[in-house]
Amino acid sequence: MAREVVTGISVSTGIAIGKAYFLNRSISSNLPRQTVPEHMVAGEKERLVYAFTEAVKELAAVRLKVPAELKEHQLIIDSHLMMLKDPKLSKSAIKYIDDLCINAEWALDKAVNDLEKAFGVLEDKYIRERMQDVSQVAQRVQAKLIGGEAILSPIEGRAVLMAHDLSPADTIELEINKLMAFVTTLGGKTSHTGILARTLNIPALVGAEKLENSVVDGDLVIVDGLSGKIIVDPDEEELEHYHNLQSQFETYQGTIIRSCQLPAETEDGYRVQVLANIELSEEVSAVINNGGEGIGLFRTEYAYLNRSDLPDEEELAEKYIELATIMSPRKVVLRTLDLGADKFMSYFGPLDEANPAMGLRAIRFCLKHKDLFHTQLRAILRASTCGNVSVMFPMISGLKEIHQAKDALERAKVELTAEGIDYDHDMQVGIMIELPAAVMIAEILAQEVDFFSIGTNDLIQYSIGIDRTNPHVSYLYQPLHPAIVRSIKYVVDAGHRAGIGVSLCGEVASDPYCVPILMGMQIDSLSLTPQAIPGIKRILRQLRMPECKQLLKEVLHCRTVAQINKLVTKNIYKKYPEELMFFASLLDNDDIAG
């Protein structure tokens, strides 16, 4: 039996068995914290500025060393460089030196702590996790302040890399051919560690809080990227089990990758589009390599984050044109900014709202900040001539918002026409259905747009009234709640009656337990993470529409979540036991077990 089992969050699937190698970059506990005489304050400020300058030079040098297999991730290094050059962090630290007469290391630590507190109260998980990037950047500056060099020890043989935190630059400086898996104490589902691990096709876990107390250098460990476990010092029986599981998983992966470029079509010929949700253009190759037929949701927020100014039209247009050109003739759906009080943008600063999830965000934020919205719409229109581009407005609650958003789009068109700038006059316009209000008037909204995209993550949250990141109520997050199933079906039917396509882009789209029910509704397209595409396409290709419709009919007669989960589990396990071994479902395990 294993000495210990540590749990984490799986961000890249697979199984690795090997020796642990710790990357010890944690310097925060050793930072000197001193008050200084007033005459030394100027010197401390100079030290801080110099450390920032040197950190920029060091990271720029790392950028030049990005290996070919990670070239597409160069933008992540660029984002760290941008943070280093942003004066906000250094100015905050300098103010502490001035006000408190403390040394530069302590002042920077306090400035980072302030940001951690600001990020910590934000509701959006993705934005909260960007704090990890700020901490990594600050660590690089601290290393310069204490005279440390960012030199990593060479890894002897292949190893499972363990670290308190792992920056993109760390990864690039390591010998990537020796890495069997990543495990970090910090990090969340959207951390860059996961993106890099998926590119390298190795397992990765983040958020393994007990890691540093449970594992030491040289321990034999099993990293189970399927269930999110690290088995420390396993016994023979566990080793045999995981060697077998590793072999089965590799065989399965090979099978689904070989077939991922085949059409997403049921056995009896019903065709559905399988698209990808991405936020960085460097994820495009993963979309194409995994058989994605386009991008169903491009989150445009990334270009606005971690900077003190706003991107201008040229910068945005360049990014959108590049994306549309690479993906052409495949579809690219650009979602307009989904920012707001719960999504930090330095330029505006945090808004004081008691409940930001229901506050000034998404389309509401854009309609209030018309200049910002106008700039983005012009950039999107300019990109529309370079590929199959559509625009999509998030968090629509009623007709007035659609009319205002479309009016803004028309104004941008008129302006571009007057300036002689070309755009696609037939560019499709869609909206996200993620509020119960939008569901209830779906038939009315369908008359106004070219397509719907159902955002199930928010729809479940707002319909059931729960925050799934809140451990006290997360058990209520049930994708197959009767109200959610009925809501999705109502929207699909309303869209089809109006002759428009309906996509689904939340996590439900990548859940094999939910997909047959969605097919029973005759959903037109699914949009999911690139890595989930091969498995979902394989399941789709084994479905038959009469069976899906029958399953949906039975599900609609169920009165409780437990009844639906049991029914779905019974049906799905009979048909796809092999695939489901390697999937983590959103369904409640207690319901499945019962």
Description:
With 594 residues, the chain is α/β, with parallel strands linked by helices. Helices cover 47% and strands 13% of the residues. The strands form two sheets. It has an eight-stranded mixed sheet. An eight-stranded parallel beta barrel has the order 9-10-11-12-13-14-15-16. Helix 3 (87-100) crosses helix 4 and helix 4 packs antiparallel against helix 6 (131-145). The longest helix has 24 residues, at 41-64. It is globular, with a radius of gyration of 25 Å.
Distance between the termini: 28 Å
Number of helices: 25
In percent, how helical is the residue content? 40-55%
- Counting copies of identical and different chains, the oligomeric state is single chain
Overall pLDDT score: 86
Radius of gyration, in Å, reads 25 Å
Question: What characteristics describe this protein?
Answer:
single chain; 594 residues; alpha/beta; eight-stranded mixed beta sheet; eight-stranded parallel beta barrel; 16 strands; 47% helix; 13% strand; globular
Q: In a few lines, what is going on in this structure?
A:
Helix content is 47%, strand content 13%.
Topology:
Blueprint: E1 4-7, E2 9-12, E3 15-23, H1 41-64, H2 74-85, H3 87-100, H4 104-120, H5 125-129, H6 131-145, E4 159-163, H7 168-173, E5 179-184, H8 192-200, E6 204-206, H9 211-214, E7 220-224, E8 229-232, H10 236-259, E9 273-278, H11 284-289, E10 294-299, H12 313-327, E11 331-335, H13 362-368, H14 370-383, E12 388-393, H15 399-418, E13 429-433, H16 436-440, H17 442-445, E14 451-454, H18 456-464, H19 482-497, E15 501-504, H20 515-520, E16 525-528, H21 533-540, H22 545-557, H23 561-575, H24 577-580, H25 589-593
Parallel strand pairs: 3-4, 4-5, 5-6, 9-10, 9-16, 10-11, 11-12, 12-13, 13-14, 14-15, 15-16
Antiparallel strand pairs: 1-8, 2-6, 3-7, 7-8
Helix pairs in contact: 1-2, 1-3, 1-6, 2-6, 3-4, 4-6, 10-21, 12-14, 14-15, 22-23
